[in-house]
Fold:
Amino acid sequence: MTQSIRWLQDEIADRMLQKLDIVKLKAKDVLLIPDFPGAHAPFLTKRFPGIRFHSAPESELSKLELFKLRAIRFWNSKFKSASCISLDDYKKTGRINLPSNSVDLVVSVLFIQDLSDPKHFLQECWRVLKEGGLLTLSYLGPDTGKELCSESLSQQLPLQKLASPWDMHDMGDALLGERFSDPVMDMEILGLDYDSDALLLADAKALNLLASNDQNGAQCTQLPKKLSLEVVYGHAWALGKHLAKAQDHVAYIDLNQIGRKTRSDSA
Structure:
């Protein structure tokens, strides 16, 4: 994301977190991935007093913005140690730099659509979540920017598909496949209206619907005046983490989880 679309991140984060009002969860450690300047962290601070933040700041933040964000997260955490995780490192290594079973809540806003392997991201979220932890997420679905998909525009603009064009059913199935429990999925279509072609093109680039190095968009004479955004929401629980992964619809229990009862009387 870039500054031109910052308001959208803030709006979607607000809609996501409002859904937490009806969720019973005691959270002490939360991972924000990605993290960005906005109202989501103060909301979480009020919702979960004493919370500690583990922040994965957006790669696009300047050094000054990153410094301010780290200071604010430290303040939000009430001067507890607040981890800072590199999104670039995650994209290179595929690993969230946190210990296993270390956070109670993972909040991911408009991120998954840019990942080539969202299933691996779910696996990492499962790994870092504690037993009984919650993953809440949002991302852009495959109908985002459908107004740009006409044949004439495809010949004039360097259109590109989202890296992960999953609809909400794909995500629900993937969450179950990665052992998350009770996934709840939702979707809505948001319409953005434009008076300026330049602003539409800037937002399309920020949403990764256009190649960022495009120089010919201003010459396009048939741009739409609207962009549709398919926003997918979901949350799911990390339960039964001590159980081995089910295979062929059979759940396998770790031997270490089987208690042994001895008889006090002799046979």
The mean pLDDT is 85. The two ends are 71 Å apart (CA to CA). The first strand starts at residue 29 and ends at 35. The longest helix spans residues 63-76.
